[in-house]
Amino acid sequence: MIHAVKGILEKIENGKIYINVNGIIYEVVVGNTGDLESKINEEVYILTKLIVSDDGLTLYGFSTPERLKLFEKLISVNKLGPKSALKILASNSVEEIVSAIVNEDVSRLSKMPGIGSKTAERIIMELKDSLKEFDLTLSEIDKKTIEAIEALVTLGFSKSQATKAVKKAAKNENSLDDIIRKALKYLSNK
């Protein structure tokens, strides 16, 4: 089993990264490559999950142990494959996904890429009781933070831009309006 890949990031292409490890280049499917764009020709460390299918072997990569664990939980859901699970993870934070599942929020979950209402219901039914290991993460979730991110995305900012700005703003602010106002200030200064 390949637990992780550590090497020089040579190329990024179509949701895949290519990492040179002592002359062997690994193709790793990551979905969202935004954070890696600035690391071309630098050393990276990516946690991985090897999936064997009729199409061959595919190595999926993740930046944090939580993202890897959630990916493994999602692919355990009946009729939810690795590509769909990766789409969900690429466009949402672990906190948002876990919160939607634990709170049985079919509406929010079905707005995520590749998920309809029936799939959302199946995910909730199969996973809501098995996400205990994410309790620590959930205790840090603030509903206002998620709402602020959603508001900024509605205003046209990317999910990653909104998330970064809201995390900065939420450290010193308490109300939803203040978080959004301060996040907008961060975003306008870029």
UniProtKB/TrEMBL annotation:
One Pfam family named in its UniProt record: HHH_5
Location in or out of the cell: Cytoplasm
GO biological process, one term: DNA repair
Principal localisation: cytoplasm
SMART domains the UniProt entry points to: HhH1
Keywords attached to this entry: ATP-binding, Cytoplasm, DNA damage, DNA recombination, DNA repair, DNA-binding, Helicase, Hydrolase, Nucleotide-binding
Domain of life the protein comes from: Bacteria
Annotated GO MF terms: ATP binding; four-way junction DNA binding; four-way junction helicase activity
Domain UBA positions: 140-190
Residues covered by region (Domain III): 140-190
GO cellular component: cytoplasm; Holliday junction helicase complex; Holliday junction resolvase complex
UniProt comment concerning the protein's domains: Has three domains with a flexible linker between the domains II and III and assumes an 'L' shape. Domain III is highly mobile and contacts RuvB.
Job of this protein: The RuvA-RuvB-RuvC complex processes Holliday junction (HJ) DNA during genetic recombination and DNA repair, while the RuvA-RuvB complex plays an important role in the rescue of blocked DNA replication forks via replication fork reversal (RFR). RuvA specifically binds to HJ cruciform DNA, conferring on it an open structure. The RuvB hexamer acts as an ATP-dependent pump, pulling dsDNA into and through the RuvAB complex. HJ branch migration allows RuvC to scan DNA until it finds its consensus sequence, where it cleaves and resolves the cruciform DNA.
Family, similarity comment: Belongs to the RuvA family.
The name this protein goes by in its record: Holliday junction branch migration complex subunit RuvA
Organism taxonomic ancestry: Bacteria, Thermotogati, Thermotogota, Thermotogae, Thermotogales
